[in-house]
Specification:
single chain; binds inosinic acid; alpha/beta; six-stranded mixed β-sheet; binds magnesium ion; Rossmann fold
């Protein structure tokens, strides 16, 4: 596994995360939402983003696994870990990547069953060319090409989440 190219630098990420927070600060000023962060990939993005938020909110982490140790989506998503009562609440759902969309779509469907008031999706990267389901994220950090990415929380086989930038990798090297 070798880093091929840095697609988004640390500085670009920092600037964009602040911009997203500024937009959320306007949209959620009076909503007292629940932020649900999808582990593990969005832990760094979430921790950076929430430090810029100036409205009241509750925070929880959930798990949704669709990939295992493979780079291909199975289309199946397992959801766990939600332990706040979210009924009638406005939800901000944070994930690292919107790729095929299976994960976010499945999560949205589950959250709807729990009778939430609204769901707003936020992702740091979006790979529009890979989409398999009809889904657009409400807030997107960066649109990226169809490459396998690591860094800023994203992993290949649970490694390289700590890289401060977002990089495309050659997974065979
Ligand atoms: P989706 O269900 O295909 O949209 O996949 C979303 C999940 O797959 C993300 O939350 C990531 O955990 C993982 N994923 C998709 N693409 C990549 C990638 O390029 N690098 C690392 N993880 C990825
Ligand atoms: Mg993930």
């Amino acid at each position: 596994m070798k880093v091929k190219e840095i697609l988004v630098s640390k500085e670009q990420i920092a600037k964009r995360v602040k911009e997203l927070a500024d937009e959320l600060n306007v949209a959620f000023a009076d909503k007292d939402p629940i932020i649900l962060s999808v582990l593990k990939g969005s832990f760094i993005f979430t921790s950076d983003l929430v430090r810029y938020l100036n409205f009241p909110f509750e925070l929880d982490f959930i798990r949704a696994s669709s990939y295992g140790n493979d780079t291909k989506s199975s289309g199946k998503v397992k959801i766990s870990g939600l332990d706040i009562n979210i009924k009638d609440r406005d939800i901000i759902l944070i994930d690292d990547i919107l790729d095929t969309g299976y994960t976010l779509k499945a999560l949205i469907n589950e959250l709807k069953k729990l009778r939430v008031n609204s769901i707003t999706t936020v992702v740091i990267v979006n790979k529009p060319s890979r989409r398999k389901v009809d889904l657009i994220a409400d807030y997107v950090g960066f649109d990226v090409p169809n490459e396998f990415l690591v860094g800023y929380g994203m992993d290949y086989q649970d490694r390289d989440r700590n890289l401060p930038y977002i990089a495309a990798v050659d997974i065979d090297k």
